Inverse folding.
């Protein structure tokens, strides 16, 4: 091949290489543009999807509620437990509550005050002034749906330390039942307890202002939860920020008084300022007024009276049952609002066959007639007026529905 031809071939090759090089540069540039564009589109698409997802997961408001039922004292006189005694030596108190169970069993939290200590037959059953009751009392109340029990009373020490230990050990075996007021150690007494029902967290305390002179041994004050402002403050401050609702059972007031004492009012206002939502009173053995205090912050039942007893006189045989609805609202910013609403009341009456003190039955007044209790409607109006005296807006008719 001549030199001229060789030079021509080299020139063509150089042009071809340049052309290919240019194509490669253009192709690379195009690829980069397309890839960046595609990334942008993908990124936009992901952003849209992410944005869509955020909308789907936007926080919603939530509402929770529970219904609280409350009944008064289980004051188990000897006639009451003798009526429950069976042929085999055991005890069955369930028939005595047969007209209450269809109502009480329909609520979420179901409260009563166990006035007499459940020390069991092994310590010897006994009557006033130093009571001791069989464990089967608790069995009957649990069967009727009761799951919130106040144990601090003026009769807690009636069977000394042994009675309290037996009582606490009995209640510890009962699943789903919350108690307060008696313990077997200081560590157990001081342990903060937070419970939950229907998405609502609550704390429950039981105190007594009376001991009948039966003081707890020095160093064993945990056996009976005797009230003091300082003790209540320390207890409540441990849990107030951890719960939605604080419930306090107070054994206070003046026996057989239909009115509210200054001491009851003083304690109620003190507890309200600590953040207590509901105060449930016992000890007078008769009904007393109910009301909202502290601008509606706290609902107070000063005394529910006796649910079952063998005390004499219509005032002491008449008790009060009540219901409240506790509501919790959580908004989109997780702000929680609690309200205690719709209080309702009904009176109860303990009937027995007086010719032998047998067949004890607790009736709602709505199920009474003049054969069971002569002139029952006038009694109903009398005690209804007592309960209503501070809160005339109170609704009547507790049915469980």
């Amino acid at each position: 091949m001549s030199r001229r031809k060789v030079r021509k071939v080299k020139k063509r090759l150089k042009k071809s290489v340049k052309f290919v090089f240019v194509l490669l540069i253009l192709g690379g540039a195009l690829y980069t543009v397309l890839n960046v564009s595609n990334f942008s589109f993908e990124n936009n698409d992901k952003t849209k999807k992410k944005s869509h997802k955020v909308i789907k997961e936007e926080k919603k408001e939530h509402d929770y509620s529970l219904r609280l039922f409350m009944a008064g004292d289980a004051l188990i006189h000897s006639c009451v437990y003798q009526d429950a005694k069976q042929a085999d030596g055991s005890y069955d108190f369930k028939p005595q509550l047969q007209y209450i169970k269809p109502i009480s069993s329909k609520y979420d939290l179901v409260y009563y005050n166990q006035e007499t200590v459940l020390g069991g037959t092994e310590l010897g059953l006994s009557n006033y002034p130093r009571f001791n009751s069989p464990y089967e009392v608790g069995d009957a109340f649990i069967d009727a749906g009761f799951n919130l029990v106040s144990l601090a009373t003026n009769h807690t020490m009636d069977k000394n330390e042994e009675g309290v230990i037996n009582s606490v050990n009995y209640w510890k075996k009962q699943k789903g039942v919350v108690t307060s007021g008696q313990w077997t150690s200081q560590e157990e007494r001081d342990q903060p307890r937070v419970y939950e029902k229907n998405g609502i967290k609550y704390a429950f305390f039981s105190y007594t202002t009376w001991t009948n002179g039966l003081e707890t041994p020095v160093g064993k004050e945990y056996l009976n939860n005797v009230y003091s402002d300082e003790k209540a403050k320390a207890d409540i401050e441990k849990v107030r920020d951890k719960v939605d609702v604080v419930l306090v059972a107070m054994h206070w007031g003046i026996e057989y008084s239909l009115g509210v004492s200054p001491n009851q009012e003083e304690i109620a206002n003190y507890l309200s300022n600590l953040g207590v939502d509901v105060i449930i009173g016992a000890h007078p053995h008769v009904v007393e007024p109910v009301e909202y205090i502290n601008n509606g912050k706290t609902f107070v039942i000063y005394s529910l009276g006796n649910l079952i007893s063998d005390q004499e006189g219509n005032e002491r045989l008449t008790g009060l049952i009540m219901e409240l609805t506790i509501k919790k609202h959580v908004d989109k910013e997780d702000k929680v609002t609690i309200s205690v609403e719709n209080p309702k009341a009904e009176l109860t009456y303990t009937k027995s066959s007086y010719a032998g003190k047998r067949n004890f039955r607790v009736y709602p007044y709505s199920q009474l007639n003049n054969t069971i209790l002569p002139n029952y409607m006038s009694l109903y109006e009398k005690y209804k007026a007592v309960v209503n005296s501070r809160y005339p807006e109170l609704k009547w008719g507790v049915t469980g529905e």
Remarks:
- Residues 3-56 form the longest helix (54 residues).
